[in-house]
Amino acid sequence: MSSFWSIWITVITLGTILGCYLLLRWCLLNKTGIEEGDNMHHSFDGIVEINNPLPRWWTIMFYMVIVWGLIYLALYPGLGNWEGLWKWKSSNQNVQSLAESREATKRGFEEGYLVEYDRQMKFAEERFDPIFAEYAKVPVTELVNDAEAIKVGQRLFLQNCSQCHGSDARGQRGFPNLTDNDWLYGGSPEKIKETLLNGRSGMMPGWLDAFGEQGIEEIVAYALSLSGRQVDEQLKNAGEARFAACAACHGADGKGNQMLGAPNLTDNIWLYGASHKDVTETLKYGRNGVMPSFKDRLSEDKIHVVATYVYSLSQDK
């Protein structure tokens, strides 16, 4: 925060408290010329106004609130750039990466700053890490039968993965459905954990310059035919010859290659849309998909539990 805005906030805040104090003092003064407790000679509907001062208990409480406000502002941040005597803050506001966040957390503990978020995270680690460590000792294929572990994994999934794959894990355009047993890189527990730990980066090149509009149309026809779609036979036959360029990744039979993350083109499951227009766009311009790595965000023990939940989603499929 700039010095100007820091001063602006400080002046307004302290000025408001001072104004409340002065208003209270003014209200305690008797400027009516009538003794306290006497009739003010005002009446309405039979109700007579008496010159009574503010109740003493109310006045004392108002003073206490003002004092409490000043103490609070002295101890906690609230007056512009003032950090507070207790050096408390809700979180490290200016970090822009996980590395900066960790460094700020480390520095905060070393210098005695009371960062509430860091304290809560430390408390959570001390309390829950032993539980995750116990889960990590159990293989995914066995842990999948633990209903409580699945619930924990689901909560972690909702917090970290649902933004892309959806709260029901069924994905959306460009983000895989995790419930259908159709895996780009493999659906075994080991492969799921590998994906979560290291992330994935998939790239489908664009072929428009290489094949032209007509060539793309032919390859699209052949690709759609692999999943049983009705297409123009002439285009399909021409596209089959051109498909040799695609077979390097998708295989000669079009069933994909999980080592490369190349999709199976025979199962009629399409990540970016199944319409003729969508497939044409994919072939023309290519696709780029990135699955981020979570090893810097979640511990390996937590990733083990998330992998168990994800693995469980497709086991009855």
Question: Outline of this structure?
Answer:
This protein is mainly α. The protein contains 13 helices and six strands.
Explain how this protein is built.
- The protein is 54% helix and 8% strand.
- Strands 1-2 form a two-stranded antiparallel sheet. It has a two-stranded parallel ribbon with strand order 3-4.
- Among the domains are: 98-132, no CATH class; 138-199 and 293-313, Orthogonal Bundle (Cytochrome Bc1 Complex, Chain D, domain 2), CATH 1.10.760; 202-291, Cytochrome Bc1 Complex, Chain D, domain 2.
- The radius of gyration is 34 Å and the shape is elongated.
- It contains 13 helices and 6 strands.
- The protein has 317 residues and is mostly helical.
- The protein has helices spanning 3-28, 56-75, 98-111, 116-136, 140-143, 147-160, 162-165, 189-198, 208-225, 233-242, 244-250, 276-285, 300-313; strands at 39-44, 47-50, 88-89, 114-115, 200-204, 287-291.
